[in-house]
Design a protein that fits this description.
Number of domains: 2
Number of strands: 27
Distance between the termini: 40 Å
Structural class: alpha/beta
Helix content: 10-25%
CATH architecture of the largest domain: Alpha-Beta Complex
CATH superfamily of the largest domain: Spore Coat Polysaccharide Biosynthesis Protein SpsA, Chain A
Strand order of the largest sheet: 3-2-1-4-9-6-10
CATH class of the largest domain: Alpha Beta
Strand content: 25-35%
Shape: elongated
Largest sheet: 7 strands, mixed
Length: 349
């Protein structure tokens, strides 16, 4: 089975992180979020991938190349203008002559894709939607179903619309017959356009209730949480580093000087240097080639590649690539952010 990865979105909700970085390349523990999806596809025997690209597509092509590094083959389908989730897949129609899987390039999940494929084939459906129960589904597409088939769906519903908290996870399996509902070079969306039309035509759309971890990393809060869910073993995916002590994750090639304090959960990437008297953590990720100078403190932060923190600095609640001069005190830890961290810690303690 082939897979289509939707990797063309602009990631507006993650700005300014995505001003110069396409959302599929946003790092989760020093690895692009889309790379975890490639590894998951390979784990389930899918090694032929079509990647739809648009925004900053050259960066995505440069990083993933032909896919041979991961033991897969990648074919790129370029959108000259945004065509929506369904419209972008329609562009690759000639490459999709058998049932195929679609997955968003900005989610982090460890779902059993093989079980979902078996479900699709055994139910004789034209489309299968991977679903998952969620306590607060208001921001997602919610599905109303009878047994294992869809009867109605709401995109970002109101509370009085809800009788079922199963959400649309953005992972699908389709038969090529769905292309008959899509116009070439026309913008269309799976949830708003394709599925309602299929329901009107009494097509079978099956629901696969997936088990495991799933997160849409499209908001800053979800982006933060996903990293620490991984560090706390809530996700069955493999980061680059290893847990050398409880809550302390580290890649090879890290330099740590004397009198450094590490407070987990933290992740320290390769070629990072932490100088004397510095404190790192808790809830902190240092991406590749970060430098933390003497007597500085970094907490509740996710610092991207080549970040620099000078001497005697205090840094809290920061996300992104930072260049901080000596004796600076910077925090993006407003009340809302602080409360979010407290709730996360309480929920997962």
């Amino acid at each position: 089975m082939k897979a289509v990865i939707l990797a063309g979105g602009e990631g507006c909700r993650l700005r300014p992180l995505t001003n110069h970085c396409p959302k599929p390349l946003v790092p989760i523990l020093n690895k692009p979020v889309l790379e975890y999806s490639l590894e998951l596809l390979k784990r389930h025997g899918i090694d032929d991938v079509i990647m739809t690209v648009h925004y900053l597509s050259s960066a995505i092509r440069s990083y993933f190349g032909d896919g041979s590094k991961w033991g897969i083959r990648i074919t790129y389908s370029e959108e000259e203008m945004p065509l929506g989730t369904a419209g972008s897949v329609k562009l690759a129609e000639e490459l999709l002559t058998e049932p195929f899987l679609v997955i968003s390039g900005d989610i982090l999940t460890d779902f059993d894709l093989t079980a979902g494929i078996d479900h699709h084939l055994s139910h004789g459906a034209a489309a299968t939607i991977f679903t998952k129960p969620l306590d607060l589904p208001i921001e997602y597409g919610v599905l109303l179903s009878k047994e294992t088939h869809i009867s109605r769906m709401f995109e970002k519903p109101k509370w009085n619309d809800l009788s079922d908290h199963s959400i649309n996870t953005g992972i699908y399996i389709f038969n090529p017959s769905i292309f008959s509902y899509l116009e070439e070079f026309a913008s269309s969306d799976f949830s708003n356009d394709l599925f309602p039309e299929m329901i009107r035509n009494k097509e079978t759309i099956s629901l696969f209730r997936a088990e495991g971890y799933w997160s849409d990393i499209g908001t800053l809060s979800n982006y933060r949480e996903a990293q620490f869910d991984m560090l706390e073993h809530r996700v069955n995916l493999t980061p680059k580093g290893k847990e050398i002590a409880k809550g302390i994750w580290m890649e090879d090639g890290v330099t740590i000087h004397d009198d450094v304090t590490l407070k987990g959960p933290i992740y320290i990437s390769s070629n990072t240097i932490i100088h004397e008297g510095a404190t790192v953590g808790p809830h902190t990720v240092l991406s590749e080639s970060a430098i933390i100078h003497e007597k500085s403190s970094v907490t509740h932060s996710i610092l991207w590649e080549n970040s620099y923190v000078g001497k005697s600095c205090s840094l809290g609640g920061m996300i992104g690539q930072c260049q901080i001069q000596d004796h600076s005190a910077l925090a993006d830890m407003n009340e809302e952010t602080a409360n979010a961290w407290q709730e996360y810690t309480k929920k997962n303690s």
